[in-house]
Design goal:
Layout: H1 6-36, H2 46-72, H3 84-99, H4 113-134
């Protein structure tokens, strides 16, 4: 059995709570807010600028936890399906930057571009949560 350092356990708890509860709720709230406050040809909302950073923080915490776990001898971190968890986390961060960047591929959707992008991100986050709980 691998002993869990208190800091290692704390990073895991923060990563789990932020990803499972906080980020999921923030995605829904941000989608609603951005849909209702949409105005064409204005600079990006502070919500649209800050949101990818929150996903980056979540992905970074997860990557730190995953790497420390691998070097600590937690072998199931490299098994299937758990190996998909860090990959999906990084993919979610990349998707967040693409969808909320200056060249958003959903820009032609107008008011619905942010909710569509956040819907894709919500699917990625929830599937990642399911992978983590299955492993």
């Amino acid at each position: 059995m691998v002993m869990v350092d208190p800091i290692f356990g704390s990073v895991r708890q923060i990563h789990a709570i932020f990803g499972r509860e906080v980020l999921s709720i923030l995605i829904v709230v941000a989608a609603i807010y951005l849909a209702f406050t949409y105005r064409p040809n204005v600079p990006r909302s502070p919500v649209a600028r800050i949101f990818p950073v929150l996903v980056d923080i979540q992905a970074t915490l997860g990557l730190i936890y995953w790497l420390v776990g691998i070097f600590s001898g937690i072998t199931y971190f490299l098994t299937f399906p758990f190996i998909l968890h860090p990959l999906l986390g990084l993919a979610t961060a990349v998707v967040g930057h693409i969808f909320f960047g200056s060249r958003n591929p959903f820009a032609k959707l107008g008011r619905w571009s942010a909710p569509a992008a956040l819907g894709i991100m919500l699917v990625l986050v929830l599937s990642n949560v399911m992978i983590a709980t299955m492993a």
